[in-house]
């Protein structure tokens, strides 16, 4: 079970108690499964409620319609992705080889993206962009800050502005390429993961201090 989004996007009523939060999580988990199985257009709130083992009335207490469920699921994935970045970009990464640092981060994102529900949401992003809320850019900025700090630890000779620029380019490049990869089949997705690693390692290599 995963936690509900901190920002209750398009929700009719945000849950105030743990029981309500668990119910919302169950609805979003069920929606991810249904969207992956039949697609957004064919999915229904009745099917989502049935999969979540809750009544349709209970579902409508929190979400006015299917679009609101989609937006809340999208927001939850977004928060989870950015939390993942903070989890893998730890200070310990400052001591490992550049290839391992980049590889571990990209592999972690690749595993996350392999979730069928996530892939279904990303596909719907392309088909009907109006369904999606504008992304909270503060999350990207926070990820850039974490990566910039790590790059500075790897090479203290780099100026802070340079570290932030390098981190910004890496985050933007990685997001673009990994999003493209998840929209293809599994083979293409894996190929894009490897190409993303190669590009980021080559980009960061001139700025990385030699490891002992």
Automatic annotation (TrEMBL):
Transmembrane segments: none
Domain of life: Bacteria
Keywords: DNA-binding
Residues annotated as domain HTH tetR-type: 21-81
Keyword flag DNA-binding: yes
Region forming the signal peptide: none
Keyword set includes DNA damage: no
Region of interest: Disordered: 1-22
GO biological process, one term: regulation of DNA-templated transcription
MF term (GO), any: transcription cis-regulatory region binding
Pfam families per record: TetR_C_15, TetR_N
DNA bind region: 44-63
The protein, known as: TetR family transcriptional regulatory protein
Organism: Gloeobacter violaceus (strain ATCC 29082 / PCC 7421)
């Amino acid at each position: 079970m995963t936690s509900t989004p901190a920002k209750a996007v398009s929700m009719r009523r945000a849950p105030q108690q743990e029981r309500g939060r668990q119910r919302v999580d169950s609805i979003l988990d069920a929606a991810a499964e249904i969207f992956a199985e039949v697609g957004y257009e064919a999915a229904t709130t009745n099917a989502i409620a049935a999969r979540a083992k809750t009544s349709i009335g209970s579902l409508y207490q929190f979400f006015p319609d299917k679009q609101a469920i989609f937006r809340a699921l999208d927001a939850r994935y977004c928060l989870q992705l950015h939390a993942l970045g903070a989890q893998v970009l730890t200070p310990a990464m400052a001591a490992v080889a550049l290839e391992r640092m980049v590889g571990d981060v990209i592999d972690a994102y690749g595993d996350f993206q392999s979730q069928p529900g996530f892939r279904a949401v990303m596909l719907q992003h392309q088909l009907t962009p109006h369904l999606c809320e504008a992304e909270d850019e503060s999350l990207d900025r926070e990820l850039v800050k974490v990566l910039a700090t790590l790059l500075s630890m790897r090479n203290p000779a780099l100026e802070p502005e340079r570290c932030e620029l390098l981190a910004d380019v890496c985050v933007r490049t990685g997001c673009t390429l990994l999003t493209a990869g998840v929209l293809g089949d599994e083979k293409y997705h894996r190929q894009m993961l490897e190409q993303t690693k190669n590009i980021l390692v080559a980009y960061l290599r001139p700025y990385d201090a030699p490891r002992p």
